[in-house]
Amino acid sequence: MTFLSKTILPRGFKASGVSAGIKKSGKPDLALFYSEISAKAACVFTSNKIKAAPLKLNIRLLKTNKSFRAIIVNSGNANCFTGRAGLKDANAVAGFLAKELKVRPASILVNSTGIIGKRLAVDKIKSSVPKLVKGLSKSGIAQAKKAILTTDTFSKEAGAKFLIGNKPVTILGVAKGAGMISPDMATLLVFILTDADISQNALKAVLSESVNNSFNLITVDGCMSTNDSVMLLANGAAGNAIITSGKNLTIFTRVLNSVCLELAKMVVKDGEGTTKFIEITVDKAKNENEAKKAALAVANSNLFKTAVYGENPNFGRIAAAIGASGIDVSEEGLKIKVSTIDKKEIKVYCAINKGKAKATVYTSDLTPEYIKINAEYN
């Protein structure tokens, strides 16, 4: 496996990004990821009970459709908490794009991110779709990855090339996310494209595993979004023997895990107002669930996160968070180690001494800038 040093779209994919005028700033806010041939899709969505209109549409499409051609994304408006009108707007966006691409509306996945509770500017999107489609190219990924951002300070991408048999295969992922980051999942849109030929069952299983090993292990503020989506399109353009199980599935899974974890770490490093990247490992727990529960209790502790921001070595806050997490732990059994606190990247190691299980999660500090960003976000 070789990580990509520059953005390279897998074979058969093109992308585009434009400004549709949804954002007041005039920055790019409409992106398109397009497969020239039919692709399989696997998706993981937020577990939030309040789901945005595009998610409701996508969940329905995935139950009835096995062939997809495009993903369209707008930023600046979440199209959430907008009732039946929001669902009508999401369908309309798919319809505009389908007509321009000359594909079925059911082959298009729709995504939105931004302000909750406002109607989508459908007319602005409609008038921008022709330009969006005309701009499709291999190099269009540069604009597409910018157009999905909201409070992010940088674009997030990770990719790798590897062999399945003797066929070179590429995976490329782009992501947005900086605030409302909490497991299951993190405000988080992730679009992963691959030219691998892989069965539908394998694609679904491997994405679920990769999300659990990456995006479900990060937290910035413990707040879960309504629009979180991780989408994986596989179009088979690499021409490899179809991946179903065995060695080739193991290889594909390992690479996808690496790409997703790299993207997840970027999301934490770009956390709103963040100055520190924190890795928290809980070891020697009864089971993995307890280890993860304890690690997340520390990661979501505002007292701990503000202590890290202030470079204050008051790590009784770690012990308090683990003790309040609900897992089986004792004062005598708990051992805590923390790396140098005045560095940009900090590691916390906690041994529970109740078993052999371990889990690692990733978080950031909590700063005055986070409060400022979210106090002004409207």
Describe the structure.
- By secondary structure, the protein is of the alpha+beta class.
- 33% of the residues lie in helices and 27% in strands.
- It has 10 helices and 13 strands.
- The strands form 2 sheets. Strands 1, 2, 3, 4, 5, 6, 7, 8 and 9 form a 9-stranded mixed sheet that branches. A 4-stranded mixed sheet has the order 11-12-10-13.
- Helix 1 (53-64) crosses helix 2.
Question: How are the elements arranged and paired?
Answer:
Blueprint: E1 2-3, E2 13-18, E3 30-45, H1 53-64, E4 68-77, H2 83-101, E5 108-115, H3 122-134, H4 141-147, E6 156-164, E7 167-176, E8 189-194, H5 200-212, E9 229-234, H6 246-269, E10 277-285, H7 288-299, H8 302-309, H9 316-323, E11 335-338, E12 345-351, E13 357-364, H10 368-376
Parallel strand pairs: 4-5, 8-9, 10-12
Antiparallel strand pairs: 1-6, 2-3, 3-4, 3-9, 6-7, 7-8, 10-13, 11-12
Quick overview of this protein structure:
By secondary structure, this protein is α+β, with helices and mostly antiparallel strands. It folds into two domains: 2-269, L-amino peptidase D-ALA esterase/amidase, CATH 3.60.70.12; 277-376, Roll (Ubiquitin-like (UB roll)), CATH 3.10.20.340. It contains ten helices and 13 strands.
Helices and strands, in N-to-C order? EEEHEHEHHEEEHEHEHHHEEEH
Strand tally is 13
Low-confidence stretches: none
Number of helices: 10
Taking the alpha carbons of the first and last residues, their distance comes to: 43 Å
Structural class by SSE content: alpha+beta
Under the CATH scheme, the architecture of the largest domain is 4-Layer Sandwich
Look up the CATH topology of the largest domain: L-amino peptidase D-ALA esterase/amidase
> How many domains is the backbone divided into?
2
Q: Kindly provide the name of the CATH class of the largest domain.
A: Alpha Beta
Residue-averaged pLDDT: 92
Strand residue percentage: 25-35%
**The named CATH superfamily of the largest domain:** L-amino peptidase D-ALA esterase/amidase
* Helical coverage, percent range: 25-40%
Described by the principal axes of the CA atoms, the overall outline is globular
Global Rg? 21 Å
Quaternary structure annotation: single chain
Largest sheet: 9 strands, mixed
